[in-house]
């Protein structure tokens, strides 16, 4: 027993939760030193994003019994991060966030190993995401959440009764903040709603109509967007606007000031110009700390079973007094992402190229520039050119042959789709069934289309 | 060297230069720098708080390395206050950080006047006896105080101070101040210059909804004995009237008018919340009154006289479909009225100051302007002394919590968080703090909780076995994630109190780390 050493151990406090039996715990909870050791040795957590939430998550997880962490982020450190992204210092500005964050936490918490990945989330092979027990999301964009959600849900397999297979479930915790407000949620694909089931929680951003900007500006923001979206292109034919170039920003600001003066509109400042053009979301340390802590705690509980879990969505508002609320959202049974997969019925003669053309026209998918993967095998890859060339010859072969002549199976396709008039990268799980093979397909079509 | 402005950009967008200035002037004292205290200060140091003083008498042990990010291997055996202070300083060199190696309990006993030098004291992980003593000290010295405690999967945050008045409460959803139900002469005059029946469709669809509603309301009252629509039928009729004025389906301004017609139906005058504030006995001012109450006294006079039952106009209007010219003119009319109202308030403030024997210029123009602009949103928060709450909690609330399913876990934790302190006073350790003897601790904690409930006048109320068991299992553990959550909330409340912006929490926040159904208890 660890009794005599518990009070001098590094895990003095955490041991109380992991070593002792409890009454309000998860169904899989098996307290004991083995649980603590397994958490250290075998549990791996991926933190997506090394920003305001990501920095906190790495620290919280490193001090919650996890020893194997990885973090992925494509950004470099900026001065405006320093009021909350506490792992970064002024001299770190310009360095990759993931690398500095990993290094700082490892320096402080001995025994923790954090592997940084300085790249876009789409740059990683899907299989990269499969070796983690759980994924913690510290992101600020809907698109990135959608992508990771689709990846995690793509591992999900259903049995013949359309029940999710336990070992294929990749849990996620997701946090988000804006000013004094935030949310933390638990996503158990196949069990609780996935990000896409409740996408309506994130209404698309409202844009100003162009005619308002051009003809009837009323606010400072209208003048700024006129300079940014209309005037820039008029004057700099062909040159793309770069929001990170201070010269570009100053130009937009001065044009906005001119327009505001012309119409007698008050309130254009440089700070507002940056805010409008870059769609800056105000962010503070405390909200990030609160939301990340909730996410880290849920991560610990999901992996160890040491307590019940959040079911399934926590909203937090600290601006007027203090409000927290837990809502139990329900799964969208027809969800394209976490459901059993879009059913595609094909003749055995259909080539890979024909199959990809169908995806582009499929009303639910509208998926172009597809890369297709079956099991571990890449059937076709769009980029890089070397791999494209290697897989190009597959395009004219029947998909049935490429998939090893099995009657039905899951195929993963990445590509781009159009959402709210915007191209986004996406990943879709498809249930491909071939017609006219022994053991007719009638029963498999139920719930499909 | 980067400009501090850039570094703080994302928070300046929330609390502005003034809020930031207040933070940079503040001097904070932290009692106990375990993870709860360290995480609270971390968030404040990052935001550029003026100065921190960390007080802790303990040395860093191996166990501290498992839950506190502000210490590491090299800290073992050293003063915890010193190590945490050094780590915090690394986060922001603009902050003045110092430490005192002393136990807070000793300081509370021997040197109560020590605390009067601070703007605010954050007291973490104190037991009941010390909390009550510190509360009295800070209340007397007029120092703001926040208690925070993490305990297993629960914990609490509680503010304690006599009164906190907020002018810039910045509510999320607040009805804009358009006075469509009570337009002043200039606004009515402006509306009269605009013809709703204009034939040019471009002009017709660029008439701002404010003008449409002012004119249509006027037209309505003329045919309804000077009354605005009030019954459901009348409201519907009014909306239909608006609809009938549309000359095309795509007229956004008329759609906005129909959507905003409730602003015409809204009752005139001030909210009950504001009524309560001007009726407060503190609005009868004398030379010892605070600036806030002097301004409230002037507001009270304004409402009774020039305001005609209304507070000063805020002066801003939301964006709406309109031609630029109409919109800018409308903006000027609202601003002019707000400025005129402010000047009246200012004059009244100066007169009141003179009357109570203070320098008439002792409240700045900027302060009065902000007060006048935000008059409808004033908020006053008051907090009971901890001792009062502990000895005589508000009975109806307590009974409600004990019987309401939504509150049962939170109130259970509230009772148990107090019971563990009584337990510790009797048995020199917290229940389950050390391994072994768990069954005995469970039964002792249960007895302690029952007797506490009976002291609170809740004979017969019981807590569930599950919760008592869990509390013993927690064994006073300070888990990092829980400490980061509790510390996050504590730091956020510190920011609201110091910037005097936004509304701080009321009552006691009880954290429920089991399923996150945390609650605020007003006892």
Automatic annotation (TrEMBL), chain A:
Keyword line: ATP-binding, Ligase, Nucleotide-binding, Ubl conjugation pathway
Enzyme class of the recorded protein, top EC level: ligase
Gene3D superfamilies reported in the protein's UniProt record: NAD(P)-binding Rossmann-like Domain, Ubiquitin activating enzymes (Uba3). Chain: B, domain 2, Ubiquitin-like 2 activating enzyme e1b. Chain: B, domain 3
Enzyme Commission code(s) on record: 6.2.1.64
Protein name, per record: NEDD8-activating enzyme E1 catalytic subunit
Cellular-component GO terms for this entry: cytoplasm; nucleus
Family to which this protein belongs: Belongs to the ubiquitin-activating E1 family. UBA3 subfamily.
Lineage: Eukaryota, Viridiplantae, Streptophyta, Embryophyta, Tracheophyta
GO MF entries: ATP binding; NEDD8 activating enzyme activity
Residue ranges of every copy of the E2 binding domain listed in the record: 344-435
SUPFAM superfamilies referenced in this protein's UniProt entry, alphabetically: Activating enzymes of the ubiquitin-like proteins
Catalytic activity of the protein: ATP + [NEDD8 protein] + [E1 NEDD8-activating enzyme]-L-cysteine = AMP + diphosphate + [E1 NEDD8-activating enzyme]-S-[NEDD8 protein]-yl-L-cysteine
Active-site positions on this chain: 211
InterPro entries named in the record: E2-binding, ThiF/MoeB/HesA, ThiF_NAD_FAD-bd, Ub_act_enz_dom_a_sf, Uba3_N, Ubiquitin-activating_enz, UBQ-activ_enz_E1_Cys_AS
Cross-referenced Pfam families: E2_bind, ThiF
Pathway listed: Protein modification; protein neddylation
Bilayer-crossing regions: none
Presence of the UniProt keyword Ligase in the record: yes
Role noted for this protein: Catalytic subunit of the dimeric E1 enzyme, which activates NEDD8.
GO biological process: protein neddylation
UniProtKB/TrEMBL annotation, chain B:
InterPro entries: APP-BP1 (IPR030667), ThiF/MoeB/HesA (IPR045886), ThiF_NAD_FAD-bd (IPR000594), Ubiquitin-activating_enz (IPR035985)
CDD domains for this protein: APPBP1_RUB
Pfam families on file: ThiF
GO biological process, one term: protein neddylation
UniProt feature coiled coil, ranges: none
Molecular function terms, GO-annotated: NEDD8 activating enzyme activity; nucleotide binding
Location(s), subcellular: Nucleus
Pathway: Protein modification; protein neddylation
Keywords associated with the record: Nucleotide-binding, Nucleus, Ubl conjugation pathway
Keyword Nucleotide-binding: yes
Domain (THIF-type NAD/FAD binding fold) ranges: 8-501
Function of the protein: Regulatory subunit of the dimeric E1 enzyme. E1 activates RUB1/NEDD8 by first adenylating its C-terminal glycine residue with ATP, thereafter linking this residue to the side chain of the catalytic cysteine, yielding a RUB1-ECR1 thioester and free AMP. E1 finally transfers RUB1 to the catalytic cysteine of RCE1.
Similarity comment: family membership: Belongs to the ubiquitin-activating E1 family. ULA1 subfamily.
Protein known as: NEDD8-activating enzyme E1 regulatory subunit
Organism this protein belongs to: Vitis vinifera (Grape)
Lineage: Eukaryota, Viridiplantae, Streptophyta, Embryophyta, Tracheophyta
